[in-house]
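sorry for the late reply, my laptop died twice this morning and i had to redo everyting from scratch. anyway the thing you sent over, i finally got around to it. pasting the sequence first so we're on the same page, its 512 residues, then the predicted structure underneath. double check i copied it right bc i was rushing
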Amino acid sequence: MRQELLNAAVVVAALSLIGARQGQGQDATAELVARETACTETIMDRQVHLEPEIVPEIPHVPRWCALLELDKNHIHIGDCELYCEQEGHGTPLVLLHGGPGATHHYFHPAFSRAAQFAKVVYYDQRGCGVSDYEPGEGYTLDQAVDDLDMLRQRLGFERWVVLGHSYGGLVAQCYALKYPDKLAGLVLVGSSLGFGADTGPSRQREFISDQERARIREIHRDPNLSGAQSVYNAFLNGDWKRQHYCKPTADQFARIALYEWKHDNRFRSAVGGQTSWLNLRGGFDGCPIPTLIVEGKWDLTWGEKKPTVFHANHPGARLIVLDDAGHSPFASNPDEFFRVLREFVEGLPDVPAAKLAAWKEHVAAWRGKAMPESKRVVTSVGWGYRSSVKIAKAYKPEWLEELQHRSLLLRTAFALYDVKRYEEALVVFERVFEAASEKPLYQGVALVWQGHMLDLLGRRDEAVAMYQRAVDLKITGGMQHSQYRMGYAPSKYAAERLKTPFTRVENQDERE
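ok and here's the structure:
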């Protein structure tokens, strides 16, 4: 599904912004960049601002992509096209955006500084931004890694520096484990860990007031607002403090809402579920690839212990913690961030072949222990029908002892449901309930789907008992199953099934 990068209105707006100023062209753009990246308020100021009412109209501002001198293309990588931009010269440096579900846009205009010492490659991951919304075999981390390397090949780079930010750091780590020969260096900025750990309590509550939190909750619960309107209004009422150190300008608020959180509705739920079971602990022991970890001291996404905990899993890396910086230190403390990045890129040593070979042997052994066949099968495919067939074909009852995470078990149960193996699916949904002891929402989902299986097996009395248990949990949270085009609150939905038996719904994704 192709989306156009620029429409006529954006082009006109970009030209008016640049052309209306004295000193047109690059000087005017530089002036705009300076104005839009100036830091006039930080989370430390603890200012509270509440809009008196919802702002329905998001101001129309052009993409940075329209204002900057960039080489822009759609790159064909086999079964889809990825939107890609390049600027600068030198060592190739590819940027992996976060999310899951964000876009490359938020790297602008900060990373134009890196174009002074590297060839910067921006791109939207499959299913995000203005790249194709084509699931392929299903949106997965493994597919994202393969897409990245296919992009490298298409651009003609033998090796490159991979920089991953936030969730993009998770993709970057997985890329390093799968394609170590293609890496000149690895940079992890405010990166997701890739394993479960205690990083300490979140500090978000220290900076967002009770009034702001209440207002933000109201905004996100308003059914009349689009996704972009929700993001925009939440930011106007203080939500920017969660992941920004400096308060964005009014135009930045609009750009964030319009361009920096766009993805296929199926993408986030599919990939997000995979991040919860991943465990990269121990994978980078002995890694010889030059690695730089950059953290913002005031990154509120995790607790204060996060940099130390993360660095322990990359013992050969250099750790830099920047003051006056949050989740995106390249935006809040650009002078120091790009000084450190330039030093890293320009000082990259060659990786000794013997050390690289030894680490690859370590990774193979580590992966064999960390990824038994059951996990390899389930995590290598998506949530569509064809993926379900693959899982069901390989399924063995012994998997129940290996797939201990609720997300992996849930995916397996849905695969068995898709191919109408209801008795086996019932057993796996029972195991989902056991594995979700600390997640009432997932327990409710497990009970609902046990009821579904029992209804399909003609065991109505038992199904009613399962639905009643789900009702009794009194769960108000919601669950989405995009492959079935379903969304529901388990307890409320179960109350409906007490009156009306479940009738089969079909997997709508990738059905042959």
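Confidence is low (pLDDT under 50) at residues 1-24.
thats about all i looked at so far, will dig more tmrw
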